């Protein structure tokens, strides 16, 4: 799975979950600071990413995923493993 | 110590109902005797004994909420918040930093976010506990319509949720009335909301044998006081009032629909779902309400009945009215607007208070439709099938709930 493919799927999920315009979902965007996610949104977003990519994201790892790019990187590593 | 009780008036109304999603449409539907009952579209009811309901039609939460806000609310909360916003706008009441702590919310519901709970239960069973949404609990809990209305409007004063089944909306208005009367708030957003047209809810109510199964003729299924009635028809929606301290309303030049002057509440202490024989507890609620208001039975012009169209409610409510009003029971008018909207459970007290207030404001009483052959045990003037022009000085609204809760409110023409 290419970086671009992951990014495009992450972008769609984030836009959908956080009810934001896809154009706002830039790699450097922070879920909490730029995209208006609160603690409940973040939990739901991680669950949606787990479903989409059929992976498990442990709570400790989820805490480190604060931006779109961080999510893409994490998923890329997981998919490669 | 005696507390000086303040006069409390109704300055705003909001309604999301099976007859329309504004107060104007709702009232027009009521006085033209329009039916709001149809086959269920919200879920596949083909396996249920009852397959009809008074659904809210054409409701777009995005009229009142942004996409993210709407997504985080169960339908019952969307209705409650939307009707509250309508009511505040109608009252032209602005909540700001100066008055926020003086404005509160009491919104009742019988059940709460059942739709969300059912969806999440399915996820739990099929995919396990880790897949359940973090929004499940905050979306389903019954108080969330009141909490979200405060979040959406900035009302930081007293906030509560009554959960007294089908009396919840009326309890909410009565409790809010007390708060303003005693000076704990200058204004209250209050009423009821419900969205329980769901598969599990219908399964349970059908098993209680409480619902009409006239599936082939939905328009005539809700027929309070008629001999052919066979149970209630469920409706959904929300009715909200702005109650305001009189001097506060006058000082800002608010329009005043009516004054709220009485609140009575009792319990049958008899049975989980059946009304006490002769409507004993209901009669006491009406009597207490009259006493609270300091008026005589003869002053009452109109009663918006609980009138569920169940075999048990209607004759017992009729008997209770006769106990309280004596001969005057045959002179006042009584109608059940549930004949048109269905029974909104915890939402019913809200929309029926709106109907009662409009009756006072417009001197017109809505009819009981589908009343063709009255039950011999139901022999009052139920305003059959056509609304009627009538001077409505005092309008009473009854709500009774599973658990034996009986609540009566009294509205008066403002002078």
TrEMBL record, chain A:
<dbReference type="GO" id="GO:0031177">
    <property type="term" value="F:phosphopantetheine binding"/>
</dbReference>
<dbReference type="GO" id="GO:0016020">
    <property type="term" value="C:membrane"/>
</dbReference>
<comment type="similarity">
    <text>Belongs to the acyl carrier protein (ACP) family.</text>
</comment>
<dbReference type="InterPro" id="IPR006162">
    <property type="entry name" value="Ppantetheine_attach_site"/>
</dbReference>
<dbReference type="InterPro" id="IPR020806">
    <property type="entry name" value="PKS_PP-bd"/>
</dbReference>
<keyword id="KW-0443">Lipid metabolism</keyword>
<feature type="modified residue" description="O-(pantetheine 4'-phosphoryl)serine">
    <location>
        <position position="39"/>
    </location>
</feature>
<dbReference type="InterPro" id="IPR003231">
    <property type="entry name" value="ACP"/>
</dbReference>
<keyword id="KW-0444">Lipid biosynthesis</keyword>
<keyword id="KW-0275">Fatty acid biosynthesis</keyword>
<feature type="domain" description="Carrier">
    <location>
        <begin position="4"/>
        <end position="79"/>
    </location>
</feature>
<keyword id="KW-0276">Fatty acid metabolism</keyword>
<dbReference type="GO" id="GO:0000036">
    <property type="term" value="F:acyl carrier activity"/>
</dbReference>
<protein>
    <recommendedName>
        <fullName>Acyl carrier protein</fullName>
    </recommendedName>
</protein>
<dbReference type="Pfam" id="PF00550">
    <property type="entry name" value="PP-binding"/>
</dbReference>
<dbReference type="GO" id="GO:0005829">
    <property type="term" value="C:cytosol"/>
</dbReference>
<keyword id="KW-0596">Phosphopantetheine</keyword>
<comment type="pathway">
    <text>Lipid metabolism; fatty acid biosynthesis.</text>
</comment>
<dbReference type="InterPro" id="IPR036736">
    <property type="entry name" value="ACP-like_sf"/>
</dbReference>
<dbReference type="GO" id="GO:0009245">
    <property type="term" value="P:lipid A biosynthetic process"/>
</dbReference>
<comment type="function">
    <text>Carrier of the growing fatty acid chain in fatty acid biosynthesis.</text>
</comment>
<dbReference type="GO" id="GO:0000035">
    <property type="term" value="F:acyl binding"/>
</dbReference>
Automatic annotation (TrEMBL), chain B:
<dbReference type="GO" id="GO:0004315">
    <property type="term" value="F:3-oxoacyl-[acyl-carrier-protein] synthase activity"/>
</dbReference>
<keyword id="KW-0012">Acyltransferase</keyword>
<dbReference type="InterPro" id="IPR020841">
    <property type="entry name" value="PKS_Beta-ketoAc_synthase_dom"/>
</dbReference>
<dbReference type="InterPro" id="IPR014031">
    <property type="entry name" value="Ketoacyl_synth_C"/>
</dbReference>
<dbReference type="Pfam" id="PF00109">
    <property type="entry name" value="ketoacyl-synt"/>
</dbReference>
<keyword id="KW-0443">Lipid metabolism</keyword>
<comment type="function">
    <text>Involved in the type II fatty acid elongation cycle. Catalyzes the elongation of a wide range of acyl-ACP by the addition of two carbons from malonyl-ACP to an acyl acceptor. Can efficiently catalyze the conversion of palmitoleoyl-ACP (cis-hexadec-9-enoyl-ACP) to cis-vaccenoyl-ACP (cis-octadec-11-enoyl-ACP), an essential step in the thermal regulation of fatty acid composition.</text>
</comment>
<comment type="similarity">
    <text>Belongs to the thiolase-like superfamily. Beta-ketoacyl-ACP synthases family.</text>
</comment>
<protein>
    <recommendedName>
        <fullName>3-oxoacyl-[acyl-carrier-protein] synthase 2</fullName>
        <ecNumber>2.3.1.179</ecNumber>
    </recommendedName>
</protein>
<dbReference type="InterPro" id="IPR017568">
    <property type="entry name" value="3-oxoacyl-ACP_synth-2"/>
</dbReference>
<dbReference type="InterPro" id="IPR016039">
    <property type="entry name" value="Thiolase-like"/>
</dbReference>
<dbReference type="Pfam" id="PF02801">
    <property type="entry name" value="Ketoacyl-synt_C"/>
</dbReference>
<feature type="active site" description="For beta-ketoacyl synthase activity">
    <location>
        <position position="166"/>
    </location>
</feature>
<keyword id="KW-0276">Fatty acid metabolism</keyword>
<keyword id="KW-0275">Fatty acid biosynthesis</keyword>
<dbReference type="GO" id="GO:0006633">
    <property type="term" value="P:fatty acid biosynthetic process"/>
</dbReference>
<dbReference type="InterPro" id="IPR018201">
    <property type="entry name" value="Ketoacyl_synth_AS"/>
</dbReference>
<keyword id="KW-0444">Lipid biosynthesis</keyword>
<feature type="domain" description="Ketosynthase family 3 (KS3)">
    <location>
        <begin position="5"/>
        <end position="413"/>
    </location>
</feature>
<dbReference type="InterPro" id="IPR000794">
    <property type="entry name" value="Beta-ketoacyl_synthase"/>
</dbReference>
<dbReference type="GO" id="GO:0005829">
    <property type="term" value="C:cytosol"/>
</dbReference>
<comment type="pathway">
    <text>Lipid metabolism; fatty acid biosynthesis.</text>
</comment>
